[in-house]
Write a structure and sequence with these properties.
Elements: E1 11-14, E2 22-25, H1 27-30, H2 33-45, E3 54-58, H3 62-73, E4 76-80, E5 90-97, E6 100-107, E7 116-124, H4 128-138, E8 144-152, E9 168-173
Parallel strand pairs: 3-4, 3-7, 7-8, 8-9
Antiparallel strand pairs: 1-2, 5-6
């Protein structure tokens, strides 16, 4: 299986969660052992030589690829969570969503100035959640930050909402 073959393992669901939306369901890729292996290796290969010390995975699907990346790169994993889910002292960032405001949190001691951080989520749509996570991580003054997605929905132009000074990669683009 080649990297481009991964697209065929992603289920497309029209009109979900609402009419006019085309939902890209990565659970069908994740349940296929060969596809999961190809995805995991391709993600890790992008960052093996970058000195990553922490991978931040965004709740909830970013936990899957983020954990795999942390394991493959031999570094730590940090969950970026919805409010009230982390047990210790947190820092948070509110951000606008299509229908209101949401918030993302990290433990206040999760990142330090010696860290090279990779932010990971499964899918780039509008970029609002990732931008909030990026701003939160940057406030902790790491050495460098990278951003990664498994899938990018190019028509939604989410990349435009991400910082120009940050390397952003996506394995697959729809």
């Amino acid at each position: 299986m080649e990297l481009e073959d991964l697209k065929t393992s992603i289920r497309t669901i029209p009109d979900f969660p609402s009419k006019g939306i085309i939902f890209r369901d990565l659970t069908t890729l994740l349940k296929d052992g060969e596809a999961l292996h190809v995805m995991s290796q391709a993600l890790a290969d992008l960052y093996r030589e970058k000195g990553i010390t922490k991978v931040v995975g965004i709740e909830s699907r970013g936990f899957i690829g983020g954990s795999i990346l942390a394991y493959e790169l031999g570094c730590g994993f940090v969950p970026a969570r919805k409010p009230g889910k982390l047990p210790a002292v947190t820092i948070k960032k509110a951000y606008a969503k299509e229908y209101g405001v949401d918030t993302i949190e990290l433990h206040s001691d999760a990142i330090n100035s010696d860290d090279v951080v990779l932010l990971h989520d499964d899918l780039l749509a509008t970029g609002g959640t990732m931008r909030a996570c990026y701003d939160l991580v940057k406030s902790m003054n790491p050495k460098k930050v990278y951003i990664n997605f498994v899938v990018e929905l190019a028509d939604l132009k989410g990349r435009d909402n991400l910082p120009a000074e940050c390397e952003v990669t996506s394995l697959l683009t729809f």
